[in-house]
Each structure stands twice: as structure tokens, then as C-alpha cells.
């Protein structure tokens, strides 16, 4: 349970790290 929650959070963080630069580039 704890491991699954940690993996889910890690996936969300990596998704945000990939999404944020895309949004920044999209602004320019």
C-alpha cells in the first residue's frame, strides 16, 4: 500500500516535471 502510494506520487511528480517545461515553451 505504502509502496503503491509512493510510486503513484513519483509518477505524478515526473509527469509535472515533463508538463511544466512544455507549458513554458508553449507560452513562447
Automatic annotation (TrEMBL):
Keyword line: Membrane, Transmembrane, Transmembrane helix
Protein name, per record: Uncharacterized protein
Species for this entry: Anguilla anguilla (European freshwater eel)
Lineage of producing organism: Eukaryota, Metazoa, Chordata, Craniata, Vertebrata
Transmembrane segments: 6-26
Amino acid at each position: 500500500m505504502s509502496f503503491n502510494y509512493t510510486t503513484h506520487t513519483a509518477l505524478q511528480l515526473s509527469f509535472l516535471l515533463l508538463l511544466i517545461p512544455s507549458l513554458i515553451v508553449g507560452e513562447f
